[in-house]
């Protein structure tokens, strides 16, 4: 029986790369997204190279949606080994103009959604001998631009949720870690009808000590590793994947 990976927001961007990468590594993949067309396109692609995948349209902030998705996956694949909490939205606005409704929606999807999916998946993992949860945070949990309060707060909450869950779920042999992406280019990882070709200036590249902007596989590769037996002694940690951008001091000339 194949190991099974749940991936939220798996229809586009980093989530699409996660779904493909886990399938390439032999996992049965269950992905959810609010975008049905994008999700089904990913499933079709995975099946085209012999992978196993299913899709369900889910709002991760809705408890019943999450329960239905996790139950369907467990019934279909017989187990859950990995959960990647990738789904996320932003509502950037001037702080003085940010509405409570927009703030609540971002917290609902990004933070509440990670909690709901983790709780439901962990219940299944506990019964089958353990597993791994990886929460996608962001470098915005550690640094900010103006007008990002809702998003930054949600991602900061994910870091706290990660270490709390790692302690609570450790006795059940469930490891929990976070990955904080920096600038990851996703314009070429969208629904095929929305794909555009990325272009980055030399200045964009030179903001990163590694000399380039990130790609979704930079995140997916780490998530696969953190979900593997090789990472069995790693839990409660946050891994910043940003090409060194957040450690480079930049001065205006």
3D structure, described in words:
It contains seven helices and seven strands. With 253 residues, the chain is of the alpha/beta class. It has a seven-stranded parallel sheet with strand order 3-2-1-4-5-6-7, sandwiched between helices. Helix 1 runs parallel beside helix 2. The model has no long low-confidence stretch (mean pLDDT 96).
Proportion of helical residues:
40-55%
How many individual β-strands?
A: 7
What global shape is seen? globular
C-alpha Rg (nearest Å): 18 Å
What is the topology, as strand order, of the major beta sheet?
3-2-1-4-5-6-7
- Compressed to H and E, one letter per element, the order equals EHEHEHEHEHEHHE
Summarize the structure.
With 253 residues, this protein is an alpha/beta fold. It contains 7 helices and 7 strands, in the order βαβαβαβαβαβααβ. A 7-stranded parallel sheet has the order 3-2-1-4-5-6-7, with helices on both faces.
